[in-house]
Amino acid sequence: MMQSLYSHSHLFGGNAPFIEDLYEQYLADPTVVSPEWRDYFDKLSTAPGAADRDVAHQPIQESFIQLAKRPPVASRSSAAADWESMQKQVAVLKLISAYRVLGSRQANLDPLKRMDQATLRELDHATHGLTDADMAVQFNVGSLVAPQKLPLSEIIARLKQTYCGNIGVEYMHITNSEEKHWVQKRFEGDLSTPHYNADKKKHIFKQITAAETLERYLHTKYVGQKRFSLEGGESAIAALDHLIQNATAVGVEELIIGMAHRGRLNVLVNTLGKQPRDLFAEFEGKAAQELASGDVKYHMGFSSDIPTANGPMHVSLAFNPSHLEIVNPVVEGSVRARQDRRKDSKRIQAVPVLIHGDSAFGGLGVNQGTFNLSQTRGYGTGGTLHIVINNQVGFTTSDTRDMRSTLYCTDVAKMIEAPIFHVNGDDPEAVCYVMQAALDFRMKFNKDVVIDLVCYRKLGHNEGDDPFLTQPMMYKKIAKHGGVRAMYAERLVGEGVLTAAEADNFIQAYRDALDKGEHVEQTVLSNYRREHALDWSQYQGTHWAHPTDTSLPHADIQRLAEKFTSVPENYKLHPTVKRVQDARRAMAAGEQAMDWGMAETLAYASLVTNGYGVRISGEDSGRGTFSHRHAVVHDQNRERWDQGTYVPLRNMSDNQADFLVIDSILNEEAVLAYEYGYACSAPDQLVIWEAQFGDFANGAQVAIDQFISSGETKWGRLCGLTTILPHGYDGQGPEHSSARLERWLQLCAEHNMQIVMPSEASQMFHVLRRQVLRPFRKPLVIFLSKRLLRYKDAMSPLEDFTSHSFRPVIGDAGISDAKAVKRVILCSGQVYYDLVNGRKERELDSEVAIIRVEQLYPFPTEQLQAELARFSHVKEIMWVQEEPRNQGAWYQIRHRLEALLGAKQTLLFAGRPSSASPAVGYMSKHVAQLKGFIEEAMSVNK
């Protein structure tokens, strides 16, 4: 047949792209094409001159061009028959390809069978020119995982079973051939059909029974209370159990789970082994109230150690607020920190598992941001297992035209070419099967995998909601649905695995255990001490003012500076960077004052050489947004990124801690949440996120509100994350001036955060070191002036680094005669220098004292009180800020200042007038406002 085939020009017509694609498959793996084609391509590859050309395309193209020029063979009838046969063969291969691409759309995925599936003509053999008469004809199956030749009827049957059964596979969007062929071989080889023994099936059934019985037990015991039932999606519990029990066999030791509300209580009890009696106490309001505020039961996290056949598995369920998917980057950050702590460079010991809702998965942008992080150097965790609990209704929207603009809720995952396994939730064996496939793919390729568990939601959005109000027809179907457990029980009884009585006994045994408040299915290890567990006890009960020496001997400063200002031999620095490095050496020698870039670098160098890791991320963090940091330098004569970059702080000593600086993706929400998660699992590191401009934190407000400010009071989670927010009024308009200081201060209570606005370079050095050296782990927010980075008066002498620590309040050292002072000005940040210049211009140096409040929260009451005591006779105490009156610190700290005043003292204010905008956009107006409030601040009666 092939000899005749080669004689015809038809192949260089409409089928040429197919042949060329077949040739590319041959080049990637010769075994995937039929022997006839393999033999032909083998001959092509040895043709004269073939080695000198583009082997992927040119030889085959030219070969078919030459074939097209050949005259037809004598026997036209034989040629026609051969041509028809070849056309049929090509049609079969096209049909196979169509099932691989589109088969999931015809899969039996919906347990409710609500929608009529439109027939896809691409999956109809007749579309490809195949007839019923061809059903018994043997065809070559090409790369289909099957015997080399099969009748067309059997080929179609295998394709339907593989791609159109209870599992639908999407993977043809993957461009990596190895990944694509792996999925192809896995599912086509198994015909997407699990083969479990009786014991495994019984175990799955017990998991399904536990999931359903717990929900129904809670529904009758705690009528009307919210719990966000998992009923309809019980197979998720079987899938998680399968994952836990099998992941240890491939080296996984920790699974960190992030999920929203639906099914959360079920996961807590049936997956993590939380005592039912503890859950009941929460329902009844009798739970121990150990936290300042606490949280509702379906937000709470939990962790346990679960025995498996291959050793213990530590499983953690992250605390989660109502903002659904925001927990996802938090989990990723926590996993990355755990992997780094274990020195797990292969990223196999700790694995993230994210459980999503269908609407939230495609609807919330934080998922796009999290996917975008997944394959980057600074944020990758080696792949995440995603499970979408797809109840086909989302919140209250059952019409997909209103829910999303894509066919599947999982389409967003295609942006990183993740394979997507759709599965019918009514088939728990299929669900476990795709879970195993997802685990195996993740462990082999270190890449995300998505399981779309198509199910339904038996009750409303919550237990007080009537779903018939918005989805009457769907809920009529649900009312008639027997449930996953009942259907699976019937199936197992039919297979002879269980009797009906045994199936019912599982329910009763589970309910009896619940009545006693005992563990039900999941056994947990007690008194088990993990090797890599963190000890937070040293950070408990400490105070922000814990005395900590953050100074550094001059000899150490010189030694460190010598290291971080050095580069490899023959390394050509940019002239600007060379000047910076030269200046830093002079600063270390005490020849000139230290600027902010030097102060910051010195802090990092001192930490990493003493065993404290440093991690900095943000947009343009390597260089620094304002070109002040230069933590990464670039050889001006080398083009390749991996060869031309050098990070001095990674080369301080042979046994130093890690220093990692990351130019992050252009996203604040996912990145800040990620760094929060990392810091929560790395208390011994300085973890920093910086905004390119302070107001960019607006895009991450949910992470600030839900985690950074309230994670401790809600969940008892300590976190030492440092956030650097450029802030300062320099006439750059509304979006590049304010980091919204007032918002941060409004969130402050119960010593939950630290808010500082340093005015000197040495203060930056000390506050960064204090954050790690002091046994106190609360978020630190630094409002950093852009102007002061190079402002000469804000530089610090060497002795401020060798003898001081961070000063929450800086008094006016220039006042020699306190009795002569007529007004005391309090301020924070760069406005201090505007005030000093204004005082000097008006010759009021002895009459106006200026005190800097460098830490705005926790408010340094005692320190400020001590400074004000020098001026007890002064009647006018004035707070001055450069922000508008309704913004900045004024309204948040006014009551604290008033509490420090004497009986005859008055508190005044000077600043820009109240404004709906953070700042003006006209330079002339900016300057006029600055002059106005400086004049007001200096209007002292002579």
UniProtKB/TrEMBL annotation:
<feature type="domain" description="Transketolase-like pyrimidine-binding">
    <location>
        <begin position="594"/>
        <end position="791"/>
    </location>
</feature>
<dbReference type="InterPro" id="IPR031717">
    <property type="entry name" value="ODO-1/KGD_C"/>
</dbReference>
<dbReference type="InterPro" id="IPR032106">
    <property type="entry name" value="2-oxogl_dehyd_N"/>
</dbReference>
<dbReference type="Pfam" id="PF00676">
    <property type="entry name" value="E1_dh"/>
</dbReference>
<dbReference type="InterPro" id="IPR042179">
    <property type="entry name" value="KGD_C_sf"/>
</dbReference>
<comment type="function">
    <text>E1 component of the 2-oxoglutarate dehydrogenase (OGDH) complex which catalyzes the decarboxylation of 2-oxoglutarate, the first step in the conversion of 2-oxoglutarate to succinyl-CoA and CO(2).</text>
</comment>
<keyword id="KW-0786">Thiamine pyrophosphate</keyword>
<dbReference type="InterPro" id="IPR001017">
    <property type="entry name" value="DH_E1"/>
</dbReference>
<dbReference type="InterPro" id="IPR029061">
    <property type="entry name" value="THDP-binding"/>
</dbReference>
<dbReference type="Pfam" id="PF02779">
    <property type="entry name" value="Transket_pyr"/>
</dbReference>
<dbReference type="Pfam" id="PF16078">
    <property type="entry name" value="2-oxogl_dehyd_N"/>
</dbReference>
<dbReference type="InterPro" id="IPR005475">
    <property type="entry name" value="Transketolase-like_Pyr-bd"/>
</dbReference>
<keyword id="KW-0560">Oxidoreductase</keyword>
<dbReference type="Pfam" id="PF16870">
    <property type="entry name" value="OxoGdeHyase_C"/>
</dbReference>
<comment type="similarity">
    <text>Belongs to the alpha-ketoglutarate dehydrogenase family.</text>
</comment>
<dbReference type="InterPro" id="IPR011603">
    <property type="entry name" value="2oxoglutarate_DH_E1"/>
</dbReference>
<protein>
    <recommendedName>
        <fullName>oxoglutarate dehydrogenase (succinyl-transferring)</fullName>
        <ecNumber>1.2.4.2</ecNumber>
    </recommendedName>
</protein>
